Amino acid sequence: RWQKIFMIPLWSKMAVFWNKMFLTIIVLLIVLFLDAVREVRKYSAVHVNEKDANVNTNAFDHIQMKLFRSQRNLYLSGFSLFLWLVLRRTVTLLTQLAKGMASHAALETQVNDATEAAKKYMAENERLQEALSEKGSSKKKESAEATDEKLKKEVEHLKAELQKTSNALHKANNEVTAVKKQSEGLKREYDHLMKEYERLQ
């Protein structure tokens, strides 16, 4: 489903600029985060100094309001930066998983086709062997033996192809399993971080 969504023409046009856009937003979020850190440190220091100096209540409330805003900006920019990175990783894993599943399905069809062809050739080989056993002439036997050898070579060739395709299918299964494990780990990490975010709120 996600692969179909990513294959929409609009996304394919945006994919050319995706890395540039991602890096631009990352830089922007880092700048906002650093600015928020600077503001928090600035107003925290001012807050301490003015509290010690016993300033009037309006100025103290104004400084506390500025401190609250800077802390709010710090949390927003920090979590936005983190969630943007998580979103990028999630999209990458979804794309890899979809490609792995597609290649897995293609390999399965190849294996099924090769198996059917091998069964067909083996049935034909058995039929020819039965026909050969019924015929008694030596010339026909020789030509039948040549045909039999040819068919045996074809069967061996098909068995080798079937083995290659089975190996490729096994490799694709391993890759899909690895990608699924990665996505499950990412989901657990995301859930943990959301709980941490709720706790911090």
TrEMBL record:
Basic and acidic residues bias spans: 130-162
GO cellular component, one term: endoplasmic reticulum membrane
Annotated segments matching region Disordered: 130-188
Assigned keywords, A-Z: Apoptosis, Coiled coil, Endoplasmic reticulum, ER-Golgi transport, Membrane, Protein transport, Transmembrane, Transmembrane helix, Transport
Protein name: Endoplasmic reticulum transmembrane protein
Transcription found in the keyword field: no
Gene3D superfamilies: 1.20.5.110
Pfam families: Bap31, Bap31_Bap29_C
Record-stated family: Belongs to the BCAP29/BCAP31 family.
Subcellular location: Endoplasmic reticulum membrane
Transmembrane annotation, as ranges: 74-91
Topological relation to the membrane, as annotated: Multi-pass membrane protein
Record GO biological process: apoptotic process; endoplasmic reticulum to Golgi vesicle-mediated transport; intracellular protein transport; protein localization to endoplasmic reticulum exit site
Residues of the Bap31/Bap29 cytoplasmic coiled-coil domain: 153-201
Chain ranges of the BAP29/BAP31 transmembrane domain: 1-106
Function recorded in the entry: May play a role in anterograde transport of membrane proteins from the endoplasmic reticulum to the Golgi.
